Amino acid sequence: MAAGDLREGRIVIVGASLAGLRAAEALREEGFTGSLTVVGDEPHPPYDRPPLSKQVLLGRATADTTELPMRRDPDAEWLLGVRATGLDLLAKRVLLEDGESLPYDRLLITTGTRARPWPNPVEGALDGVITLRTCDDAAWLAERLAAGPERVLVIGAGFTGSEIASACRELGLNVTVAERGPAPLVGAIGGTLSKLAAVMHRNHGVDLRTGVTVTGLHGDGSFSGAELSDGSRVEADVCVVALGAIRNVEWLAESGLAAGPRGIACDAGCRAFTMYGIVTDDVFVAGDVSRFPHPLFGYQMLSLEHWGNAVEQAEVAAHNMVNPGPLQRPHLAVPTFWSTQFGLNIKSVGVPTYSDHVVIAQGSLEARRLAMVYGYQGRVTAAVTVDMAKSLDYYKRLIETAAPFPPPPGAQDRAIAADVPIPSDVPDPKGLSHGPTVALTGYLPDRRLTVV
């Protein structure tokens, strides 16, 4: 297809969530005039997921009011409630579960993730056991919580599990959280700051059990309790399984793309790789399902489950789908995420797990208001703030300019350089209940083995 034709032709987007919607809008903003089809396996139009574990559970919003506003009408054909089952790269067709297939000139894959289910399907099918990912899940869980259960069991203390526990306490419900790792959020923010998360859980009345796994769920048709690996038993009537996410790539198993458990590999311009490491020029990837190299983090392939990344990457992908090579641009945005739990506002910039040391640059753990800066091999790679979000832009600049770590005087509210750096204590994700929010290429910076 000649460069002049890039604004015409047929584009198919598989995945009708945040990244899919923003890409469709951006394609039109970039001047694409051809036919645009968006395929989504859920029957709902694109909706916002962050409120599902917060406002919806607290009854401040209903699940059906989380629809994403359209910035402009993308003039697309929406095939909702239709699952893509395969991809033929040679014939350039997306296969659908109803036996139909969609031809495309360029394809964008934004299929995202789904909640990791409880590993025992019989136990997972008990009434009262649920994962929280879709608006239907949130509506069901909000209804259960509003009915006032005796106790809620949350399995996994990542961001979703912690936010659900926080909502339960705000509703006055008894809640037990079971986490295999040493503390809540440890897989996202490291060991030092996760100690504060553990204190917040316990101060707000959460029955927090760490270093344990749930070995079985019980009930006669309805969930009634769980056995833990330390021999104890928790009696509860609702169980939320918050064990992280699975990337939706199974439909690509026979496609020849580089798609696996960590997502679909693509270059910095969002172009998908084939299984042989060759970049395609007509298949693009964006959002949670992508894995892309980032120069600020040692060209590690990052998989991010972050709202901001889905939006920024979708816009880069859309731009590159309708512009010839020399005008294409890389996706270099610094990852950011936020969470509100137990009255604290936690915000992060960079990749905290890509670190070997941390230092508290502002505030203190005791004050529960602080900025923690993360470094790897002598340069700043991330910062996490607790109730100090205004400082984040400053630290983002340090990350973007590969500033030295620890940050110099002036980068914090101390007259001298920050406190002595301590190890960031990032755990191996294999030891956690919840998966990592940021998946690196398979090793952590301080775990590289030297083969002699």
TrEMBL record:
Signal peptide: none annotated. Residues 337-407 form the Reductase C-terminal domain. It holds the Pfam family Reductase_C. Coiled coil: none annotated. Its cofactor is FAD. The lineage of its organism: Bacteria, Bacillati, Actinomycetota, Actinomycetes, Kitasatosporales. Keywords: FAD, Flavoprotein, Oxidoreductase. It comes from Streptomyces carpinensis. This is FAD-dependent oxidoreductase. It comes from the Bacteria. Transmembrane segments: none annotated. Residues 10-314 form the FAD/NAD(P)-binding domain.
